[in-house]
């Protein structure tokens, strides 16, 4: 029996004061070209909080303060631990693994989801955590 090494990842669920959700368009596989919450791999010796701060700065330019764990999702070899995060500043701009980054309203999210532009499973996870865009 082959044992596959699990890869610990984090995702940041960030809402702006208007209730819009921060999304990035993935520049690389898995999910290239699709919208998701920003995040990535936890490096050796790094805490989830440190990984969140680093990944969100790399992918969106924003500084965040990590909050509570919303839930965990398994995608292939990736175990993704999604946390609520509070934006504390920085200019919103895509970088690193993100082809684009933007704040998305409930109507915009619904449109992206309807058109199949959201990564698989994200909508269901966000809905179960009451973390979809609120505006």
Automatic annotation (TrEMBL):
It holds the Pfam family NUDIX. Belongs to the Nudix hydrolase family. PROSITE patterns: NUDIX (PS51462), NUDIX_BOX (PS00893). This is ADP-ribose pyrophosphatase YjhB, NUDIX family. One of its GO terms (molecular function) is hydrolase activity. It comes from the Bacteria. Residues 5-126 form the Nudix hydrolase domain. Its cofactor is Mg(2+). The keyword Hydrolase applies. Keywords: Hydrolase.
């Amino acid at each position: 029996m082959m044992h596959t090494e699990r890869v610990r990842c984090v995702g940041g669920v960030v809402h702006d004061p208007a209730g819009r959700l921060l999304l990035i368009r993935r520049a690389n596989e898995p999910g290239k070209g699709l919208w998701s919450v920003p995040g990535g791999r936890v490096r050796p010796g790094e805490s989830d909080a440190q990984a969140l701060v680093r990944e969100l700065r790399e992918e969106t330019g924003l500084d965040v303060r990590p909050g509570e764990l919303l839930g965990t999702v398994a995608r292939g070899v990736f175990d993704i631990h999604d946390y609520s995060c509070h934006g504390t500043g920085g200019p919103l701009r895509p970088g690193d693994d993100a082809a684009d980054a933007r704040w998305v309203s409930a109507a915009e999210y619904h449109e992206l989801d309807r058109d199949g532009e959201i990564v698989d499973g994200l909508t269901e996870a966000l809905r179960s955590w009451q973390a979809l865009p609120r505006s």
